[in-house]
Write a structure and sequence with these properties.
The chain is mainly alpha-helical. It is built from eleven helices and two strands.
Length: 263
């Protein structure tokens, strides 16, 4: 059942094209743009950047690799998924789906698998471009940590996206909300610049929001002298807590199959 639903939704996603453009192409373009613009030696891009609890990346471009891996996940699993789910609901597609034997868990599992596939493709492209364009290698041992953070990051933001559908009324509202959250979190979570440049209160709050631990986890795999599988249990714990929050909200408020605007 999950495999069939995953195949159907994957085909629909590929035909639409929008999700692929935003979830895969946009993070890659942002990475290349930021690395070329701000990672140059003239702008101080060769200065080591601190990664909380792990050490330092050799330069800003290396720091960006991990940051934009996290950025790719939040855009695929939240910024793109939330408006899509609200649109399906308001057009009555979920209502018709509800009339089938398909349970809610199978529907969520299928969407999560699609997000995982797209996230791995995007992150693979980022790692390939980092190597070929900027000569930034990804250690073989680091791929285990990358897989852990991709899986956990997707679970976190997919659960939060489904939870957010319970109080968003229409697609335009969902797009505004998801984009605003994505941009704000990216600005304070060490995606576009080092968190140390932010005021201390903002740094403190950002550490407990879902994107910063995810970005920090990816970036810790690229610090100078890193060996083996480097995974910060603090980052894992915060992400697991956010995944649980999203699941609880879904359970308590209830995922809506019926169009809200027609009530």
């Amino acid at each position: 059942m999950v495999a069939s639903q995953t195949r159907y939704n994957l085909i629909a996603t590929m035909r639409a094209g929008t999700s692929i453009a935003v979830g895969i192409v946009m993070p890659v373009l942002f990475f290349l743009g930021a690395a070329f613009l701000f990672g140059s030696e003239a702008l101080g891009g060769n200065t080591p950047i601190e990664v909380r609890g792990a050490g330092e990346t050799p330069d800003l471009r290396t720091f960006y690799v991990g940051g934009f891996m996290a950025y790719a996940i939040i855009y695929t699993a939240f910024v793109v998924l939330l408006p899509d789910m609200v649109d399906y609901r308001e057009r009555g597609l979920l209502k018709r789906l509800r009339g089938t034997p398909l349970p809610l868990w199978a529907f969520i599992a299928a969407r999560t698998l699609i997000v995982l596939v797209m996230s791995f493709v995007s992150i693979g492209l980022l790692a390939l471009l980092a190597l070929t364009v900027f000569d930034i290698p990804t250690r073989p041992a680091a791929w285990g940590g990358i897989a852990v953070f991709v899986l956990l990051g997707c679970l976190v933001f997919v659960s939060l996206a489904f939870a957010a559908t319970s109080f968003v009324r229409n697609q335009s509202g969902a797009q505004a909300l998801s984009n605003a959250i994505g941009i704000i979190l990216a600005m304070i979570s060490g995606v576009f610049f080092a968190p140390s440049l932010l005021p201390d209160p903002v740094q403190t709050v950002a550490q407990f929001l879902p994107l910063q631990p995810l970005a920090n986890g990816f970036q810790s795999l690229y610090v100078t002298g890193a060996t083996g599988l480097t995974v910060d249990l603090r980052d894992i714990g915060i992400l697991a807590a956010w995944a649980l929050v999203g699941a609880i909200v879904i359970a308590l408020r209830g995922f809506r199959w019926q169009p809200v605007q027609q009530r």
